[in-house]
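A note from the maintainers: we've had questions about how concatenated examples are separated. There is no special marker in the raw files; a new sequence line simply starts the next protein. For clarity in this README we add a label.
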Amino acid sequence: MDTAAGTAVVIEDDEDIRALVQAVLEQRGLQVISASSGAEGLELVRERQPVLVTLDLGLPDIDGFEVCRRIRSMSDAYVIMLSARADEVDQLVGLEIGADDYITKPFSPRDLRARVGAMLRRPRGGAPAAVGPAAEPPVPEDPVATAGAVPSEEAAHRLTVDVESRVAVLDSEELTLTRTEFDLLAALFGQPRRVWTREALLRTVWKTEWVKDTHLVEVHVGNLRRKLGDEEWIRTVWGVGYRFGQPELAEMAARRNT
């Protein structure tokens, strides 16, 4: 990385907004490089491999959704979409194609700063992250950091989650997961009998107190289920939230690895 905090790429065609976003990110200790078009932004992401990308949807050359798809094919950077489109459908599409967050314009610098800070506190490369305050009962251990490599050998399918290498393998095939999807899977797998509320997942996985953004959890759970190929891996507990679908297998595998 270029600095201790890493590099951020700002893809935004509005000069004033671009300057505002750059100032906010620099306050977080990031080295910021910017682009006014999708093509230029993609080239910067390819060359610099940033930790964070902010992405405007209304770019002059390439649709922002397409830019996000291409970013996801070559980078696991956190992606925050910034858009004047407040329609929920646009937000859901953005999250489904790999964005980690979606902020509508106009936005406050304080809001952006807080959300970026929450992302940068999340684990990278298997490093532990502190669990923020929550109204839920305290978690004895950080589930993302302690899930370990635990294969479910007795299942019809085998799932391995290796936190240190940030690799999830299903039936000998490595899953292509975004950072958020991996962190979510590791949290559920690490405490397989816990029923997670959406708010608790936001606090633990997203490191955010924006607990009204539960649609973030719902969309990423849906994406993760599709990649796992079977909804039985993640069960919905109606009126509460989610839990891992085969807790006894994860527990037996975890005991074998202790």
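[label: protein 2]
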Amino acid sequence: MSIVIKTQQDIEKMRIAGRLASEVLDYITPFVKPGVTTEELDRLCHDYMVNVQGTIPAPLNYAPDGGTPYPKSICSSVGPVICHGIPNDKPLKNGEIVNLDITVIKDGYHGDSSRMYYVGEVGEHARRLCRITYECMWKGIEKVKPGARLGDIGYAIQQHAEKAGYSVVQEFCGHGIGTKFHEEPQVLHYGRPGTGVEIKAGMIFTIEPMINQGKRHLRMLADNWTVVTKDRSLSAQWEHTLLVTDTGYEILTVSEGTPPKPVWK
């Protein structure tokens, strides 16, 4: 496994790409309301990336391993969609939750982040799922420092999710990122402490737990991209890209509208 330790120049470029990805999420926030289609959200994000930021939407026509190219500029995962939901012409309904996942390329470097959004008035059971998932991401982030292991991150996330009565999707994970969209290492959101790759300063990777209200099992739809919960329960996801520093971590996907770190009770 070859993990790229980033140079100071790489890190500077990744800071810019990360901030820009986060700024797309800020920009789109006021547009997420009942009646808007995810296709419209995709168009707005695409235009903002290309015309305002001068970035390239990384998902557009992305085709790893020669599979079906992804047809849109963002991923929009509504309700029971776990990840990689393709924007479409179906209006969002009051009470739904949606994850918008943004990856931009700036000067050859990728910035990758996602957030959950409430559509109108959302019930407490869905809000709780989004909140606990956000906490799961942060439980994982807090384990990041040189000398720790990737299993420490997965264990912290899994413990927090399962304690709340939820399950962790195991087929999709966080990943190294830089000049490539997906690099080594894979960052699992479950695991055992003290296992897995040792974390070293200069690594950059995402932490992006997908947490289901029901069981963890999933199925892929016929478009070869959209992944849904097998039991049709709701799913939520949050994502940050982070740099491992000499003493801990620095979150690269931060902008004015980034939600604050949770306050632990």
